[in-house]
Specification:
mainly alpha
């Protein structure tokens, strides 16, 4: 898929990378983490709304993704503001995620002929992303439990996930085919 046909793809990815950094800063109890998280959630919401508005043909799955981002970011913003009643937004996020996954989840990785469209390098990078997310989660849990080596584990996970996002931002696309409405969510 070409980057040029997906509006605001790189700024959204940069906002997600900043959100991850802010979350790690919050786990480590560093100053200004809540501000970074708040600005990141707000940027994701605004950029994705602008991306949705620029689409010429809006399908049902596009609307579901927009509502998913709306619920998810609103929940994040209200949580940072210590709003106590965020259960509605959490339930909305869960239901819209299930709806998106049922409609498009695994089909994104398939071509129109039913063949897997990812190259071996992309599959390896996706595997690295999964390892990075697992490492990030484990590092966060280890830090909450005050275990040894939690900070290096957390830092390794953050480095892997951030490098994955930055790799996608700075690498040129190799595929020529593109379906404007077949956009990934990256959440």
């Amino acid at each position: 898929m070409e980057n040029s046909k997906k509006a605001f793809r790189n700024p959204i990815r940069a906002a997600i990378a900043t959100l991850l950094i802010g979350l790690v800063m919050q786990i480590l109890h560093w100053p200004y983490s809540e501000g970074i998280i708040f600005i990141s959630f707000a940027a994701i919401l605004v950029l994705y709304a602008m991306r949705f508005a620029r689409k010429e043909e809006k399908k049902t799955v596009d609307l579901i993704k927009m509502v998913l981002v709306l619920f998810w970011t609103t929940n994040g913003l209200l949580t940072i503001l210590d709003f106590t009643h965020t259960l509605f937004f959490q339930i909305g996020t869960a239901f819209t995620f299930i709806a998106w996954f049922a409609m498009e989840g695994t089909s994104y990785f398939m071509s129109k002929d039913g063949d897997i469209k990812n190259s071996t390098a992309e599959i390896v990078w996706n595997f690295v992303m999964v390892i990075g997310v697992i490492t990030l989660i484990c590092g966060g849990l280890m830090h909450l439990l005050s275990w040894t080596y939690s900070i290096p584990t957390l830092t390794l996970g953050l480095t892997i996930v951030t490098s994955y996002i930055l790799k996608d931002i700075f690498t040129a696309p190799k595929r020529k085919e593109d379906d404007v409405n077949n956009e990934e969510l990256f959440l």
